């Protein structure tokens, strides 16, 4: 994705590197540690609210991207999460953004937190 979509990331982590699988805290905190960052300086981007909830409980920002057929939570749970304050950024299917998905996340991060996404 870095080469073909021009996404500016340098690291890709696998749960196997941390001897655990999501939603175990070792995965989220291990990635932060490898980056040399505090959890609050990091964000988990996912289409699974249970994984995002676990990341948020570890102190990371939670960025949710709606994807049809991906979410295991029922409609009521999803709506409660959407209305809550624990999801940092919610990228919905109805967003009128060309591209959507991870590109929208990058735009929002740039606009909200003034970080570089060049």
Automatic annotation (TrEMBL):
Coiled coil (residue ranges): none
Lineage: superkingdom: Eukaryota
Claim: Transport is one of the keywords in the record: no
InterPro entries: HAD-like_sf (IPR036412), HAD-SF_hydro_IA (IPR006439), HAD_sf (IPR023214), S-2-haloacid_dehalogenase (IPR051540)
Entry's transmembrane regions: none
Key words, A-Z: Hydrolase
Keyword Hydrolase attached: yes
Cross-referenced Pfam families: Hydrolase (PF00702)
Protein known as: Haloacid dehalogenase
Lineage of the species this protein comes from: Eukaryota, Fungi, Dikarya, Ascomycota, Pezizomycotina
């Amino acid at each position: 994705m870095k080469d073909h979509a021009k996404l500016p990331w340098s690291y890709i982590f696998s749960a196997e590197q941390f001897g655990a699988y999501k939603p175990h805290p070792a995965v989220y905190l291990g990635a932060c540690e490898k980056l040399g960052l505090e959890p609050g300086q990091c964000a988990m981007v996912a289409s699974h609210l249970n994984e995002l909830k676990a990341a948020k409980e570890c102190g990371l920002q939670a960025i949710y991207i709606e994807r049809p057929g991906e979410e295991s939570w029922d409609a009521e749970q999803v709506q409660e999460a959407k209305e809550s304050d624990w999801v940092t950024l919610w990228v919905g299917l109805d967003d009128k953004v060309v591209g959507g998905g991870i590109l929208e996340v990058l735009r929002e991060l740039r606009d909200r937190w003034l970080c570089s996404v060049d």
